[in-house]
Amino acid sequence: MKKIFVCMVLAVMLAVLTACGNEVIEDREQRNDSAEVESEENARQTLEDTEADLESGEDEAMDTAADYGLEDINEEEDYMDNTMKITAGENTFTATFADNSSAEALKELLAEGPLTINMSDYASMEKVGPIGTSLPRNDEQITTGAGDIILYQGNALAIYYDTNSWNFTRIGKINDVTQAELLEVFGDGDVTVAFSLD
After folding, report:
1. What string of pLDDT tens digits covers the 198 residues of the chain?
2. Residue extents of the structural domains in the chain
3. Which pairing describes strands 126-130 and 140-143: parallel, antiparallel, or unpaired?
4. 84-196 has which CATH code?
């Protein structure tokens, strides 16, 4: 009888211990799961905070650039890289280069120094003169207007103050100028014109 009783007590104790052990294991698993979830949430929050900081930093950098006029400086540098000065006597115009290999070749030529050309009137619509070298041609059928700068036959520059339709290479255009203003500056006869990058 004692043996049966002892066995029953041992069985109950074993059952209790097993149950406790299972609870401890389940509790540990729940803690681990909770820690993993919390860790993932912390990582996600850190990532979101970092992205927000980066975006804020970009905005601040752009604001700072705007505050100091850096954006305007960049735009001005791009503009200056694509313009040349045309001087006749005491009058100076700014011209914008066309987008072709002829204009690029002229830029390279002017990078070596100003180009001075003796230009003559032709047909009461343009001043034309030799540049002393040949540039690549990009001829196409165009109609000129006041201020157009044309590469003629690859070795001469013409500044138009009137219209003409022909196969030409447009190399640039004088900004904000009228036919009357060009005629007043260049006159009826020959004129010496300096082309430069500054």
Report:
1. 555 654 464 555 555 445 555 554 455 555 555 555 565 666 567 656 656 655 655 555 455 445 545 445 445 555 458 999 999 999 999 999 999 999 999 999 999 999 999 999 999 999 999 999 999 999 999 999 999 999 999 999 999 999 999 999 999 999 999 999 999 999 889 999 999 998
2. 2-70, 84-196
3. unpaired
4. 2.40.100.20
Burial environment of residue 103 by CB neighbours within 10 A (0 to 12, 13 to 18, 19 or more): buried
Q: b/e for 153-188, b at 16 or more Cβ within 10 A? A: ebebbbbbbeebeeebbbbbbbeebeeebbeebbee
Who contacts 191 (Cβ-Cβ below 8 Å, separation ≥6)?
Answer: 88, 89, 118, 119, 127
- Cross-strand partners of 121: 127
Across 51-80, b (16+ Cβ under 10 Å) vs e yields: eeeeeeeeeeeeeeeeeeeeeeeeeeeeee
